[in-house]
């Protein structure tokens, strides 16, 4: 099973119609669409990406599927906390991160731990009890393994804050070998 499928299966276990979710890295919109279908028209999805191309691709995909209950926000995911409505704080069911670069985009424009780590902290504070964060990190490109390692180290310190982490036992070797990894945070 592809990791993207594993993420969507994980999200389906938690996300219910009428709930609120966040796609922290909209990219080509596939996670945004999946979340929008899960929450249904009675719910809402906030999708972030700092690249105009990503927002445009996501908007096209959502339009093609007649989805209107998504707010697209062209800004770095590290600013999500300030842009999610106050009444949603503590009520978010799921947050997805798909780290690396935009497929079919500029491969030199990548995510970085310096912005992703604060975004994960924000995501944890936005989650409701029982909520989940899925971080899918692609590690095979320059900077990818470093970002994933820094995030893993930070997440391990967050366990003291009462969140539960889930990841493969051999995650360090997977990161070192440029294999994509999935990090799951549960609140």
From TrEMBL:
Database matches in InterPro entries: MnmM_MeTrfase, SAM-dependent_MTases_sf
Designated name of the protein: 16S rRNA m(4)C1402 methyltransferase
Coiled coil: none
Domain of life: Bacteria
Organism: Calycomorphotria hydatis
